[in-house]
Amino acid sequence: MQLIDGKITSQEVRKEIAKEVEKIVSAGGKIPHLAAILVGHDGGSESYVGGKMKACAEVGFKSSLIRFEETVTEEELLKKVKELNEDADIDGFIVQLPLPKHINEDKVNETIDPRKDVDGFHPVNVGRMAIGMPAFISATPQGILELLKRYKITTQGKQVVVIGRSNIVGRPMSILLSQKGNPGDATVTVCHSRTANLKEICLQADIIIAAIGSPGFVKGDMVKQGAVVIDVGTTRVEAPETKNGWRLKGDVLFDEVAPKCSFITPVPGGVGPMTITSLIINTLKSAKKEIYQ
Ligand code: GUN
């Protein structure tokens, strides 16, 4: 069994990007610039956005954090989004979710210029991804593809079971892995809360991607010997022995499943560290006009 180390891979990718930024800048190019809009003071969102800004500094990007109070109106927020759409110095930006209840997230998302939508959440990017056009791909699926590539895990002809059908992980993951190419060319089954015979389906899988948000959902008796298991779960569970009083738990019962695997991602330290790095990859692609000319 080999651990897929997302922390080390993430550091490698960031080093490569930092070198590329140095080259761009020494050739007289513009420093890539990511902006983030953060509404309110939710602890989780603060920490995510903090991580994104820190990653920018690490690779030599410019970053801007735009804060609004919880009471901001939808109109004010949309005005800022439109301003960022027009700001030539900004290569990409994100609006950190969730937003307060009085703001329509879909409307905000659709107002973002798809050419600057480095989260890959805009319907234009989701649609382009689905039909195999160049697109910004959302962070978690892109991070998983990068891990598969770097660990030389081939997906061609493999049976992949994706557990979970969310718009930002399960569904895009299933589309990307069934498309032509590498990673891709897999036979993909999407399972969810209403799937019958889930255990039998999982036992057929060469690769399981667990993205259901239910701690310890995938047990040892659901996994074939030699399978690759990618754990996307990051549920906070109470842990009085830790400093924060919580720890992250994955969707996979690691101790039971790991001995059966050829490769497995741990939680924490697997898929998680790659997500912010994916955002950095997308911002560089935007700055280099790789997706949209
Ligand atoms: N909230 C949790 N994850 C994300 C993410 O990837 N992007 C944005 N914009 N908000 C989030």
Give structural notes.
The chain is of the alpha/beta class and 293 residues long. It folds into 2 domains: 29-121, Rossmann fold (3-Layer(aba) Sandwich), CATH 3.40.50; 139-272, Rossmann fold, CATH 3.40.50.720. The protein is 39% helix and 17% strand. The chain has 10 helices and 11 strands. The protein has helices spanning 6-26, 43-59, 74-86, 105-111, 123-130, 139-150, 170-178, 198-203, 254-257, 272-287, and strands at 2-3, 33-39, 62-68, 92-95, 159-163, 187-191, 207-210, 227-231, 235-238, 246-249, 261-264. The strands form 3 sheets. The protein has a 6-stranded parallel beta sheet with strand order 1-11-8-7-5-6. A 3-stranded parallel beta sheet has the order 3-2-4, with helices on both faces. Strands 9-10 form a two-stranded antiparallel ribbon. Strand 2, helix 2 (43-59) and strand 3 (62-68) form a beta-alpha-beta unit. Helix 1 runs parallel beside helix 10, helix 2 crosses helix 10 and helix 6 (139-150) packs across helix 10. It is globular and about 55 Å long. It starts with a strand and ends in a 6-residue tail after the last helix. The model has no long low-confidence stretch (mean pLDDT 97). Guanine is lined by residues 48, 94-97, 119, 139.
A few lines on this structure:
By secondary structure, this protein is an alpha/beta fold. The chain is built from 10 helices and 11 strands. The chain has a 6-stranded parallel β-sheet. Strands 3-2-4 form a 3-stranded parallel β-sheet, sandwiched between helices.
